[in-house]
Hints:
The protein is α+β, with helices and mostly antiparallel strands. The chain has one domain (2-101). The protein is 22% helix and 25% strand. The protein has 3 helices and 4 strands.
Amino acid sequence: MGLKLEVSSQGQVVAAADGLPxxxxxxEELYQARNSQEVxxxxxxxxxxxxxxxxxxxxxxxxxVLPDIPPALLxxxxxxxxxxxxxxxxxxxxxxxxxxxx
Length: 102
């Protein structure tokens, strides 16, 4: 199963990130990343690991990270809507190749 985060502002998707349940970077790894390229590299390493199976009806932790925050979202006058969806992965090639896309 794959996960997708979409961040919308004024009805338009301004950022998106993909991920896998059960696979996520540690807070320390993310804190040490100094820029969006380093965040993406950390997440790429995480997604290279095998995804742990989730039994039917089971639950799993997840973390979806946006390496680049769109400037519009940093404005105090702009609001954002977050939408997280789960989708089946048809094969390994469907797993996130990059941690995030804008």
